[in-house]
Write a sequence for this structure.
């Protein structure tokens, strides 16, 4: 896997809560709905991907 060095988009806890990225009731979170990882490392990578999304549109597409 290639590591991309980019400044992450800044979002506060209110934004994550409003978007239901990470919910205390995990079954309703976007993260849980899209988490099909098989390993702990994969889950950790996906969590970081959601927690620190790219700010550069070229990297998103």
């Amino acid at each position: 896997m290639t590591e991309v060095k980019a400044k992450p988009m800044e979002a506060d806890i209110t934004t994550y809560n409003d978007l239901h990225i990470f919910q205390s009731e995990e079954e309703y979170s976007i993260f849980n709905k899209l988490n099909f990882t098989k390993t702990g490392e994969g889950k950790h990578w996906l969590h970081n991907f959601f927690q620190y999304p790219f700010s550069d549109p070229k990297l998103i597409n």
